[in-house]
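Quick one:
INPUT:
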């Protein structure tokens, strides 16, 4: 029996992840191949499949990235414990309403304070104008780099990065998609929104 092939070429974020999710949930497949045509989709689909217990190999065939996934063996160790998962959700460059200069100062203080939390946030998601905080001109970049060095995962909305033309200017975090961000919010025990 041949492995099922899902062709997601030409589809933008988060469609390849959503179609992969639907396929493996509806069909209960132990093995699947997914074809995508850009690096962002390749990484997003890979992370999604791995989060669902698949081992993923990748091949490049012309302009297509082929992800070959097979479910890990039964009895593979699962993540244990129900540790408190705190997530921050940042949707702008400033904190609060009113004066934007004050809002920028407050956002800087918010991000500086996150490293003092016990436990540290497991993820910080940046959407809309918030993605600018991860760019090369951001005054808070050193704080984000420090948080990342401490193990905090920084997710940046890929659609937002494209919208603001920041792809070459991002200096911290990784490009993500709305499916992963929403899933992370749902998985969190608490969400901080400045």
């Amino acid at each position: 029996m041949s492995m099922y092939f899902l062709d997601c070429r030409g589809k933008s974020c988060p469609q390849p992840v959503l179609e992969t999710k639907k396929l493996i949930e509806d069909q209960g497949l132990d093995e699947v191949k997914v074809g995508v045509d850009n690096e962002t989709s390749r990484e997003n689909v890979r992370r999604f499949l791995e989060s669902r217990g698949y081992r993923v190999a990748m091949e490049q065939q012309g302009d297509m990235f082929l992800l070959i996934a097979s479910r890990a063996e039964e009895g593979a160790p699962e993540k244990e414990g129900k540790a408190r998962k705190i997530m921050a959700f940042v949707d702008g460059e400033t904190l609060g309403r009113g004066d934007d200069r004050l809002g920028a100062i407050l956002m800087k203080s918010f991000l500086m304070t996150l490293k003092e939390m016990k436990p540290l946030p497991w993820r910080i998601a940046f959407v809309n104008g918030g993605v600018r905080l991860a760019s090369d001109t951001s005054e808070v970049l050193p704080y984000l780099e420090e948080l990342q060095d401490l193990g905090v995962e920084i997710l940046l909305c890929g659609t937002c990065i494209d919208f603001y033309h920041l792809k070459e200017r991002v200096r911290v975090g990784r490009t993500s998609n709305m499916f992963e961000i929403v899933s992370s919010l749902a998985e969190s025990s608490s969400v901080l929104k400045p």
